[in-house]
Each structure stands twice: as structure tokens, then as C-alpha cells.
Design brief:
There is one protein chain. The chain starts with a strand and ends with a helix. The protein has a domain of about 35 residues. The strands form 4 sheets. A 7-stranded parallel beta sheet has the order 5-2-1-9-10-13-14, with helices on both faces. The protein has 13 helices and 14 strands. The protein is of the alpha/beta class and about 350 residues long. It binds guanosine-5'-diphosphate (GDP) and calcium ion. Guanosine-5'-diphosphate (GDP) binds next to helix 1.
């Protein structure tokens, strides 16, 4: 079984942990038995195509927030209470950087996290590509899945936002500044990914989509996470052409985002914060869109019939990923829907 997942950071990490767990239950790998930290091996192969739109240069180092969220979470070294970064983190270097006036005072870089950024930047300086760096970072921990940045081209996202204090009433800022400093409160007018027209899928990305048995779209931010991945020229085409079924999971439950501020992004591109509206935004593959199947939560069950009329195979299941069991059950439902649409 070959499964390819498109994912962002937070919703992406929870979902991919569920996929990994479900695969270990359904297709156990008899040769690995119980691996490190009780993590069971699987005979299935899982590839995650990771959003790179949130990446940025800051304080002289390259940050890849969604990649690192997945890396730390799958390795089990993430801070589960804060929901981001490393467990047992300290912030001594960040305090020094603040004294020097380097970086963003409202954007804390943990010491352990900075270690990752320094390693990444060192390898980039030596000439490695982001996907080669990603491969090296994954060698440290047995993740049980393969993480592939969507592209090696720097496609950092900028937001054109309304700001009454700016000349002309609007200004451009890096997505991370809009998201973290302003908590997405400055109304976004447009999202722009730098260099996106000239970007290419990273090595292995098109193959992972073409050779998959099922492609899953994680319940990630539809605009800045999944939207960026499918904007890389060649990825949407690969999704259109793959013989695999493409199944998405709604990040919206009962008209609300589960975590984060994705509603501010949807509003900016004129899409309602609603599970069915996101499915229509992605579109049915039969009509030139991305999806064969779509999972909504049980509270959104009423949208299943209209979505099926619109050419999708849809189903309602519990979408809240509260723990590993609920995440695994959701991953299983997505895999099953992929089989059903065949
Ligand atoms: P980011 O890169 O950190 O913004 O994370 P993602 O793009 O991967 O995911 C953000 C989205 O995940 C948000 O829109 C949330 O609504 C969604 N999300 C987070 N937790 C859950 C969950 O338990 N269930 C579902 N269905 N969606 C979730
Ligand atoms: Ca992100």
C-alpha cells in the first residue's frame, strides 16, 4: 500500500500520525516488530508532501515551520502542550537576539529549534537543496514515513493586508508576521507566493503522486498550506493525472476552524468557512478539480448528498483528532473512502 499525503503543520501532523498508526495496524511489518518508543513498523509506505509556503529567512537562518512541526511530532520530540516546537525547550539564545535587535521580538526561536535551523542553514550553505536537507534531518529519528518538501524553490508567502496606519491603507508583510504578530487580524486582501510561477516540484513529489494507491489531502489550511502545495506548477497536473483516488478531509467542522485562524485565509479568497464550501473550492476531479472523495464531520452530514450531486464521493465521520486513536480512525476512513471511489 502506497499512501501519499499533502499536509501543512498542525492539522497535518495530527493527521499524519494517524495515518502512520492506522498503517501499522492494518499492514504491520513483521520484520520490524515494536520499534523505538513502541512505534510499530508498517509494510505500507507513506510519503508526505509538505507545505513550504510558511518558510522564511530570519536571524540569518532558514526556517521551515511546517516541515519541522511534522518532523518533531512524528519523532515524538514535540511540545504537546504548546502545540509547536520542541519539548523541554529553552529560550536563552532568543533573549540574546532580542538584545542585539536581530530577528523579530515577537517571534521566539527556541534553543533546540535553533539547532535545527543552524544545521539546515549550514547544509544549504554547503550547496544542499532543501529536499536534500530534509532527507538528512529525517535520518536522526525513525519517523516511519517519508517527508518531502513540495518544492526546492523558495516560495515564501506574503500577505497584502489592509492596515489603516500604512500609507495607502494597505501593505505587504510576510505570512509569518501577519499570522504570528497580528494573529491574522489585519484583513488579508491577497496571498502571494514568491517565485511560484518558476517553482518546480521537488524531486520525488510527482512520482509520489503518480505511483500512489491513494492520495490524501490532510485537514490543513486550504489556502496557505494545501493552496501553496497545489500552486507549484506540476503538482496540480500530477494530481489530475494520477490513477490513485484523491480523498480530502475537511479542516472545518460545523462552520468553524478546529484550531488556528484558517477562517481569515478563507475569507480573504472569498470562500465560506464551511466544510462543503472548501470541497467546492478544491473541486471535483471529474470537473477539473482536485478531489474524488471528501470527508466531513458528522455535524455536517447534511452536506454529503449535495456534494455527491456535485460529483464527489462524500461521507460523514468524526473529524476531531483528539488523540492517536481518533486520528487513526479518521485516517482509516479516508483510506476506505479512497477504495470506495474506485
Ligand atoms: P498550520 O500549517 O500549522 O497552519 O497547520 P495546517 O495547515 O496543517 O492545519 C491547520 C488546519 O488544521 C486548521 O484549519 C484546523 O481547522 C485544522 N485542524 C486542526 N486540528 C484538527 C482536527 O482535530 N480535526 C480537523 N478536521 N481539522 C483540524
Ligand atoms: Ca503552516
Amino acid at each position: 500500500m502506497r499512501i501519499t499525503v499533502l499536509a501543512g503543520g498542525v492539522g497535518g501532523s495530527r493527521f499524519v500520525r494517524g495515518v502512520r498508526e492506522e498503517c501499522a495496524r492494518r499492514w504491520p511489518d513483521p520484520s520490524t516488530g515494536s520499534g523505538r518508543r513502541g512505534q510499530r513498523g508498517t509494510a505500507a509506505s507513506v510519503t508526505v508532501i509538505v507545505n513550504t509556503g510558511d518558510d522564511l529567512w530570519l536571524a540569518g537562518v532558514r526556517l521551515m515551520p511546517d516541515f519541522d512541526s511534522l518532523l518533531y511530532s512524528l519523532a515524538g520530540v514535540n511540545d504537546t502542550e504548546r502545540g509547536w516546537g520542541r519539548a523541554g525547550e529553552t529560550e536563552r539564545v532568543s533573549a540574546e537576539l532580542r538584545e542585539w535587535g536581530v530577528g523579530w521580538p515577537w517571534f521566539t526561536l527556541g534553543d533546540l529549534d535553533l539547532g535545527t535551523h543552524l544545521a539546515r542553514t549550514a547544509w544549504l550553505r554547503e550547496g544542499a537543496t532543501p529536499s536534500q536537507v530534509a532527507e538528512r534531518l529525517q535520518q536522526r529519528w525513525p519517523l516511519g514515513v517519508r517527508l518531502l518538501p513540495a518544492t526546492d524553490t523558495e516560495v515564501d508567502t506574503y500577505v497584502q493586508a489592509a492596515d489603516p496606519d500604512a500609507p495607502g491603507g494597505e501593505r505587504e508583510l510576510h505570512f509569518q508576521e501577519w499570522w504570528t504578530r497580528y494573529r491574522a487580524a489585519l484583513p488579508a486582501l491577497e496571498f502571494r507566493q514568491r517565485n511560484i510561477e518558476s517553482a518546480r516540484p521537488a524531486p520525488g513529489v510527482v512520482e509520489a503522486i503518480a505511483d500512489a494507491d491513494v492520495v490524501l489531502i490532510a485537514p490543513s489550511n486550504p489556502v496557505v498550506s494545501i493552496g501553496t502545495i497545489v500552486s507549484v506548477p506540476g503538482i496540480r497536473e500530477a494530481l489530475a493525472e494520477t490513477p490513485a483516488r484523491v480523498v480530502g478531509v475537511s479542516p472545518i467542522i460545523g462552520g468553524q476552524v478546529v484550531r488556528g485562524m484558517a477562517d481569515a485565509c478563507l475569507t480573504a479568497i472569498g470562500v465560506e468557512t464551511d466544510a462543503a464550501a472548501v470541497a467546492r473550492h478544491y473541486g471535483a476531479r471529474s470537473a477539473g478539480g482536485l478531489l474524488d472523495g471528501w470527508l466531513v464531520d458528522e455535524v455536517d452530514a447534511a452536506s454529503v448528498a449535495p456534494l455527491e450531486e456535485a460529483g464527489l464521493v462524500a461521507a460523514s465521520v468524526p473529524l476531531w483528532m483528539r488523540d492517536l486513536d481518533t486520528s487513526a480512525a479518521l485516517a482509516g476512513a479516508a483510506i476506505d473512502l479512497g477504495a470506495e471511489t474506485r
